[in-house]
Amino acid sequence: MKNYYFILSLNIYASDAEIKHSYRRLALQFHPDKNSSPEAETIFKEVNEAYEVLGDPLRKAIYDQMLRGVPTEEQVQEPVRTHRDPRYRPKPTTNATRRPTHREEILAMMAINLRYALMISRLTLLFSVVLITDYSLPPVKTITEIQTVNKIKEKFREFGGKWQQFF
Question: The pTM is what?
Answer without folding.
Answer: 0.44
